[in-house]
Specification:
The chain has 90 residues and is an alpha+beta fold. It is 41% helix and 11% strand. The protein has one domain (2-88). The protein contains three helices and three strands; from the N terminus they run αβββαα. It has a three-stranded antiparallel sheet. Strand 1 (36-39) and strand 2 form a beta hairpin. Helix 1 (2-15) packs across helix 3. It is globular, with a radius of gyration of 12 Å. The two termini are 16 Å apart.
C-alpha cells in the first residue's frame, strides 16, 4: 500500500509542477545535492548538513522523481522513509 501511495503522490506533485526533475537542490542553501539528501515534506530535498531528516541516496531520488516508480530501486527501508515523509505532509 505504501508504494502505491508514494507513486500517486509523486504523480500529483509532478502535475502541480512541484516535483524536482534533473538537479536536486537544497531547500535551505539552494546548492546542488551530490550525495545523500534529506527528504522533507512534499518530497523537498536538503543537504544532510543543512537539516536532520530521513536520508536517501540522491541517485535513487532522481530515478524515483523521474520514473515515479518505487519497484526497481528502493528497498523497504527507503520506502518507509518516503512514506513517513509523505505522511508528515498530510
Amino acid at each position: 500500500m505504501e508504494r502505491v501511495l508514494i507513486e500517486a503522490y509523486l504523480k500529483l506533485l509532478d502535475f502541480e509542477g512541484r516535483l524536482p526533475k534533473d538537479e536536486l537542490k537544497c531547500l535551505i542553501c539552494s546548492n546542488e545535492i551530490l550525495d545523500n539528501a534529506s527528504l522533507l515534506r512534499a518530497f523537498q530535498t536538503a543537504h544532510i548538513s543543512c537539516i536532520f531528516s530521513n536520508t536517501i541516496d540522491v541517485n535513487k531520488l532522481k530515478y524515483l522523481f523521474n520514473s515515479k516508480s518505487t519497484t526497481t530501486l528502493l528497498d523497504e527501508n527507503e520506502i518507509n522513509k518516503c512514506f513517513f515523509t509523505l505522511m508528515e505532509g498530510l
